[in-house]
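Hi R.,

Here's the chain you asked about this morning:
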Amino acid sequence: MLAVDATRVLTALCAASRGHAAGSPLALRRIASGVLGDTQRAAEILAALDLAGYVRTDTMGWYSGWVTDSGLFFSYMRTAEVTTAKLEQFIEERLKAGKARATVNRETGSR
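And the predicted structure, written out as tokens:
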């Protein structure tokens, strides 16, 4: 799961996305650098969050992009709080929202 720095960054990104216009990208790297105080570490954390499926970027270097639905859902949970029941809840919510099973499988890392 996420390291402490990644959790801090994801929480800040989710907070920023709540007050942000839908469909327009967030300044991912600026927000992450502000939280961590280190641009290089921010890029590393954003790459890890992208790989985990919690953010998506529209530019090289993670300068801007979006928090994904799975990023929003899991951002406020500590690793110990991510249980089978929480994963099943997320899957159920995504399927009810009309997402294809293959999409949900990719979001959760299911095979």
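The domain at 4-108 is CATH 1.10.10 (Arc Repressor Mutant, subunit A).

Let me know if you need anything else.
M.
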